[in-house]
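Predict structure. Chain length: 368.
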Amino acid sequence: MENPSVPSSRLLSLDAMRGFTIAAMIMVNFPGHEDYVFPTLRHSKWNGLTFTDLIAPTFLFIVGVSITLAYSKKRLSNAPKSGLYRKIVIRSLKIFAVGMFLNMLPDFNFSDLRYTGTLHRIAIVFLVCAILFLNTSWKQQLGIAVGILVLYWLALTGIPTPGIGKVMLEPGVNLAAWVDQQYLPGKMWQGNWDPEGILSTFPAIATTITGILAGRLMLLPFSPNEKSNFLLTAGFATAALGYFWNLIFPVNENLWTSSFVLVTSGFASMLFGALYFLIDIRGRTAGIAPGVIFGANAIAAYVLADLLALIFYIMPVGGDTLNHRAVHILTQVGPDPRLASMIYALFFVCINFIPVYLLYKKRIFIKL
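Prediction complete.
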């Protein structure tokens, strides 16, 4: 696995998967009405798994695959890597800075600032995993991922929460929450704990490493069908292992538990394998254009959604916000309020698609 042959063309399946993942992220982040949402379009309150819980780890898996495809040639080069490290650090800082900017919207209240979030985690994980990929073998990467998951499991289930004196896995009173309470600056998302906190970022790194390993598989001299089969088989086995680990260490996105990593990475691998088979092997490209277009400017689309939300979700329109008025009107026509809320969310995704499409049409790709 140390002498990959980098493919000359992009994987349409990966581009489409990235784009549809971002579109799904926008949809669940911006329901038409926060009080009317189908259960699977919400994050799990604590233990469990919904469609929404799958989105963030799937994107981190894609980040891992992309790291492998982008840096494989550079990794094998004898040229000094100092310039490459500088680019990686700068890109991470830019993503983190944009995340901070979005956290300050709309009122820029510096006294109530949150230092964590989706983009913050992507920035940190990308930085760690890109440097890790450039300096380690696939066996070392696998060992690091396994080590993180096992140590995280032992820490959360074996170390009593300070001040409580016993092991706790409940909201706000577990070891991860205690670490955040002691060392995480600024506001926390849930008052006394944060789903993108310090300790839970370590297993998120393991999630991205699973994507790196999947990317390395794509560079091996196997046939396309063999690669697809490996992705599907490895994904199923990983998800099954995560299911059984869940029996003693529950699947939990808020804690990003080790079982959550395996179940969601397994799902992402199976999804990637299926899309690779259908799109890149069989040439079934009908309907993938929106995903490819969103995927070409994925982070930009995510940022754009937060900016457009100032108009479509926050700015008053006739004494109410546009989203609430739209859901109210749709509900009067007949749909279930939750369906009306989802329809508006899909409408908002389409609104975001327009500028992203224009960027794609002009071959403008914003790389943070």
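Summary: The chain has one domain: 13-361.
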